[in-house]
Amino acid sequence: xxxxxxxxxxxxxxxxxxxxxxxxxxxxxxxxxxxxxxxxxxxxxxxxxxxxxxxxxxxxxxxxxxxxxxxxxxxxxxxxxxxxxxxxxxxxxxxxxxxxxxxxxxxxxxxxxxxxxxxxxxxxxxxxxxxxxxxxxxxxxxxxxxxxxxxxxxxxxxxxxxxxxxxxxxxxxxxxxxxxxxxxxxxxxxxxxxxxxxxxxxxx
Amino acid sequence: xxxxxxxxxxxxxxxxxxxxxxxxxxxxxxxxxxxxxxxxxxxxxxxxxxxxxxxxxxxxxxxxxxxxxxxxxxxxxxxxxxxxxxxxxxxxxxxxxxxxxxxxxxxxxxxxxxxxxxxxxxxxxxxxxxxxxxxxxxxxxxxxxxxxxxxxxxxxxxxxxxxxxxxxxxxxxxxxxxxxxxxxxxxxxxxxxxxxxxxxxxxxxxxxxxxxxxxxxxxxxxxxxxxxxxxxxxxxxxxxxxxxxxxxxxxxxxxxxxxxxxxxxxxxxxxxxxxxxxx
Lengths: 204, 279
Known about the structure:
heterodimer, A: about 200 residues, Rossmann fold, nine-stranded mixed beta sheet, 13 strands, B: about 280 residues, alpha/beta, globular
């Protein structure tokens, strides 16, 4: 079973429905024991970094997530679920993240382009993760965010997207797959990623 | 590169799709879930359900529509119409929609927008602005822009041009407000709106094209995305709204609803004219 972590933020139902659509057993959970027992952990979410970390801490879920990643369980981070993996965010001052990856979460600079970055944009695949079967380079995915991650270790950058800046839209290291865009909102191609992740979990 | 979005809008009344002309003379035309799936297959970038159900008891029907749609359609869904409380938003998000669009409630209580943005995130709070061309009465202060309908003769008179502006309306266009639409858009952004859904009430249902001047003025004033709406009668109108009006997304109802054009045809046309779209 794959655990979709519910920490009181964001639209988790569409992630659950996406997995259901492609025949992958994934359930919404909100306790550490369920994360411990899961074969894979999905951290979705949109909203503020600080609220996310606060909720995860209040619900005593941070350790369970860090432990699951440490044990090598396949992890899928979506949007905020990518950002909180990093050391710190500059949103509302400085806020500490899960520190799985070294690096920062920063706001799009003041520019002519609109913020939030909202809509369909292309992903340049730098390194193809095993959950990306059948996804062509420069495919369109749905984004909605005002902050993006800046990894210290450039080797974890699996995909980038251009929006005023060329930012990290996908990070991948070993068992950790994380993306800024929303596969659950990216129609066929997004569902392919969820399926790819489901297959990877069942083979792991 | 970020693609310009094409957004079909479904007007839903008591759980059925309708399309009106200037919000009256509604014609019944089908099941919203079927329509949503149809648009999804054509490659729509997002979907908007505008719930125009009047009776409060029947309001729950839209939740069921959203829930069923979200089982099969995996793209952003926005629901607008009749949202009065934070609980209404929560219920909608829980049933599977991603954004909600508010108009009347925001006008009654602008801080509703900030409370909603704080609780659910700016990304899911769309403020719908129904704007209408008016003549500014200089005897009023800036904030109290006098609202009156300019006659054709007045509009044709050059000397009135600099007094032309847009005021907002609520209750689906039935009530005019003494609020300048451009200032209102800026204020909504400041209070935490994540997007503006801008409808020209003069053009809505007319098939004469978007109010380009209105769209451009607001798109250049705010730094959040603007969806142009109201008046699309052909594909060129979509182009004009996105390019001349500088909108980030183009919303249309009847041209897609009555199958005059498919979404794919619209996108192919835009692409041929050099607009970045997702095909």
